[in-house]
Design brief:
By secondary structure, the chain is of the alpha/beta class. The chain is about 40% helix and about 25% strand. The radius of gyration is 24 Å and the shape is elongated.
Length: about 350
């Protein structure tokens, strides 16, 4: 669906994208990075709305540098910022966007009605958009991105400004775009937890550089956590402390959480099987009672934050020194200049 090779975008004093090479297939892909990481710049380059400083990008097999108009005919785009004319009803605006995408008038009106119904705005379609809530405006922007039945939609911070309930509803809509209509999605966010809920694949960028790109399971499969709760005994008045210390001595990565809860990091594969055996045998050797032992999959936000902090590292993804990144405010300003 999307392929970039050595893609860079530079502004005076700021590198918004730095030799980004990544391949994105069908499904729902989350593009995550802090504000100013280069997410909006990447979308503009993919759509042919801004020229790259170097490198190439292809969307649906077409070159972004020379075939931007053809790409935009097959791709929907939901911009981050509020760009809706306040005095125009939603139905009129979405019909206009459908016509701009090449649909005949009758087809544009039919598609507009269907799309506004899909995003939950059918009953409000004749109201001027200036009276809409933030959540309703985000839904209009999603509707205009979908109205011409694209193969791919690019959503720039679609949950921006929404309350928790609004975020949940928008995320459900995004997932349905793919499951119900077969449209692939690239959605950006600076909130990892959001993307974990809807994405099949996650791309992480920082300072315009690629940090990681892989299926969602790859972020968590190597970081399964075993939650173990044990009782105390006459020999060990604090069973959790005894278990923790014994596992540390055995070379197991472990930490305390709460009173009697011991959290054990379990690697994948055969090493993980040995980890389970070590925990079980240690509890038996200490003569402790087992209250519960349950497997938890760590959230992607936890995996990324610990790796970013350097507190833990996945040996299958060794850390590499990164060059100093420009200040986020400066990068964000550069992104906005590309609009």
């Amino acid at each position: 669906m999307i392929v970039t090779e050595g893609l860079s975008k530079r502004y005076p004093g700021v590198t918004a994208l730095d030799r980004l090479t990544v391949s994105i297939g069908p499904g729902v892909t989350g593009l995550v990075g802090a504000n100013g990481a280069g997410k909006s710049t990447l979308i503009k380059l993919l759509l042919g709305l801004a020229p790259a400083s170097e490198g190439t990008s292809r969307v649906l097999g077409k070159d972004s540098a020379t075939e931007g108009a053809a790409i935009r005919e097959q791709v929907g785009y939901m911009p981050e910022h509020d760009c809706l004319p306040p005095d125009v009803p939603a139905t009129e605006f979405v019909v206009h966007m459908a016509r701009m995408s090449g649909l005949p008038r009758a087809a544009a009106r039919e598609r507009t009605a269907d799309t506004l119904r899909h995003v939950g705005l059918y009953e409000e379609r004749y109201r001027p958009m200036g009276g809409y809530s933030t959540g309703m405006k985000q839904r209009v922007k999603l509707a205009q991105a979908l109205v011409h039945d694209p193969r791919l939609v690019l959503l720039d911070e679609p949950t921006n400004g929404l309350d928790p309930a609004g975020r949940d509803e928008m995320l459900a809509l995004i997932r349905r775009v793919h499951t119900d209509f077969g449209i692939s999605v690239l959605t950006t966010s600076h909130l990892l937890g959001e993307l974990e809920r809807v994405s099949d694949h996650v791309v992480v960028i920082d300072g315009g550089r690629l940090l990681r790109s892989e299926p969602i399971g790859g972020f968590t499969s190597s970081t399964t956590t075993l939650a173990v709760e044990v009782t105390d005994s006459d020999t060990h008045p604090s069973g959790a402390t005894a278990l923790h210390d014994a596992l540390v001595t055995a070379g197991v990565t472990v930490r305390r959480e709460g009173g009697q809860l011991v959290m054990v990091d379990i690697p994948p594969g055969e090493a993980g099987d040995r980890g389970y055996d070590t925990v079980r045998d240690t509890i038996t050797d200490l003569g402790l009672g087992l209250v519960r032992m349950e497997q938890r999959r760590r959230r992607i936000a936890e995996v990324f934050s610990t790796r970013a902090d350097g507190a833990t590292a996945d040996p299958s993804h060794p850390a590499t020194p990164a060059p100093a990144a420009p200040a986020p405010a400066a990068q964000e300003g550069a992104d906005r200049r590309a609009e």
